[in-house]
Design brief:
By secondary structure, the protein is mainly beta. The protein is built from 2 helices and 11 strands. The N and C termini lie far apart (about 60 Å). The mean pLDDT is about 85.
Length: about 190
């Protein structure tokens, strides 16, 4: 049973649209307790081999550092790049802000896919909680559109348990109800 609770699962999956803009993004109300892998779709201005960097921070672009990962990959068209954050702990329900950079490559411009809400940002709700921002100014810049083509895996948060009353608590409640009933009956006589 413990193994099933710790299984990695896809927590965010927002499809591609073929449009890319060089901006930051965040995921609000994150449904996991770990951040494992983040896959972003890049679109190069110039094809070649790039080293890309993705930084994850808690609640803001200048928030607590969750990690920075680099990937070196040949990018000639729309290319999925996966960053492994190794299951870093994240408070369930928090916001994770992502910023990215070109560490090295043949060009200083790189785009990433803005997801299904790229063309109709005001009428789109395909990726709840995934928001592209105008830049990475803290705390969370200004919202640009409600999607980014991103897939995030991690360990899902455990469902909230409904508290159950112990037999002793139930007995005490029953005794209090009986006493209250006797008091009410005693007042009527």
């Amino acid at each position: 049973m413990a193994t099933a609770a710790m299984a990695q699962t896809t927590l965010v999956s927002c499809p591609t649209s073929g449009v890319g803009i060089d901006r930051g993004f965040y995921v609000s109300n994150y449904g996991g307790v770990t951040l494992n892998q983040v896959t972003v779709v890049y679109l190069p201005n110039t094809a070649g081999t790039y080293t890309m960097s993705l930084t994850a921070r808690l609640n803001a672009y200048d928030g607590t550092l969750l990690g920075t990962q680099n990937q070196t990959v040949a990018i000639s068209g729309a290319t999925n790049v996966t960053y492994d954050f190794g299951g870093v702990a994240v408070p369930s329900g928090s916001t994770i802000a992502f910023s990215q950079a070109i560490v090295s490559g043949p060009d200083t411009t790189m785009f990433y896919d803005a997801g299904p809400c790229a063309f109709f940002p005001t009428a789109c709700s395909s990726c709840p909680g995934v928001v592209e921002t105008n830049d990475t100014t803290p705390p969370l810049s200004t919202d640009r559109r409600p999607s980014v083509a991103v897939t995030i895996t991690g360990t899902a948060a455990a469902p909230t348990a409904v508290p159950l009353f112990s037999p002793a608590v139930l007995l005490a409640l029953a005794a209090m109800l009986a006493a209250a009933g006797m008091w009410i009956l005693g007042r009527r006589i």
